[in-house]
């Protein structure tokens, strides 16, 4: 199996938290014979490196020659390197120009008086960027209105002459199966922005922000400002303002599935403040509330409540494939079409966006197997591994983002993926994210690594990312 990116596939003896994965493919200049000695010396000279369990494989792309190997066929927890596999599959199986649709549907057209007699359905289509994010994405670009997409859709509905909605608002994310979290995620992940639930109706990365600032005087409650300014959680604020010079000490908590956020701690007077990013428990319900508010802001009267509609796993006979894909029915009042998929892959890979990677996994599952489920996406990923010349036994994936602690890959499998994408026609579709020629990796030309010139003398620098080295290409003369 070794020629297909895998060897024995045995699990390492070291714990995942102390494992380090380095999967590299690049062209090495003169002095290649000394590379193994340099790597061994670098690892041996670092006390931190000596406590880790290293997996490394370095291949010369031009010749295919192996320049260095260490535990290349052992399993490691890949963490966000999982996104290399997910985004490569999405780019290959969906295409760079693939788009998503978000629609507003009714049972029928408005009557002559502008009334919708049933509900309005805000139907998600898997668009990851219904937010204030500016596309094409560039790191450091200020974001706009986080509810801009909702405002756009509401404006389209108003332009169709709708004056009153009598059946309430439904946020419908049944385009994908309602599987908000994956096996292997920690119980506290869903509290935070990096563990936001996966939904086909994603708004503002399914995240809201709480900006905490000091009160007017010591002893006063801290000020809390919500963004977007839409009530959703019940907030129990017990953060107190303390005298200047004291330390800032802010905490928050939310029970799994709960709708109350508890804040406690202290913040010094005149402190600059802190922003907490919280995941939204039910994104479709949140989107429905935001949409209702946007309609009312335009003078449209909305009768009835707001609700969410999900497609539950037990409603399907098979989560890996179906004869046909679902298609929301109704009279279309508004529509938004996303930017091309490639633009979102740039977001996913540059900032390691977990939610977007999960959405990409489900998009491939839906459009290749007609089921927008985690299982269908993972089944398609197994097919992609075979296409890339990687033995599926070399990888064990439970999600598309790498947040699952159950994921396992070998360094050899990562290198084979990089080699496959380097030779793929899809490589030239993305010159900016990890798909760029010679730089197929997370990060792009505005990443910090690209601003570091390679010194005249060759040097080996080992910088694990959260205990695990990022797999990527190195161009000629680029630092490790």
Trace the largest sheet across and list its strands: 16-8-6-4-17
Spatial gap, N to C terminus: 28 Å
Shape: globular
| Backbone structural class | alpha/beta
Average pLDDT reading:
86
As a whole number of angstroms, the C-alpha radius of gyration is 25 Å
Q: H/E series, N to C?
A: EHHEEHEEEHEEEEEEEEHEEEHHHEEHE
- Give the helix proportion (percent range): 10-25%
| Uncertain runs | 7-19, 431-480
Please tell me about this protein's structure.
The protein is an alpha/beta fold. It has 3 domains: 169 residues, no CATH class; 162 residues, D-Ala-D-Ala carboxypeptidase C, peptidase S13 (D-tyrosyl-trna(Tyr) Deacylase, Chain: A, 3-Layer(bba) Sandwich), CATH 3.50.80.20; 72 residues, no CATH class. The chain contains 9 helices and 20 strands. The strands form 6 sheets. Strands 16-8-6-4-17 form a 5-stranded mixed β-sheet. The protein has a 4-stranded mixed β-sheet with strand order 3-2-1-20, with helices on one face. The longest helix is centred in the last third of the chain and has 16 residues. It is globular. The two termini are 28 Å apart. The relative contact order is 0.21. The C terminus is likely disordered.
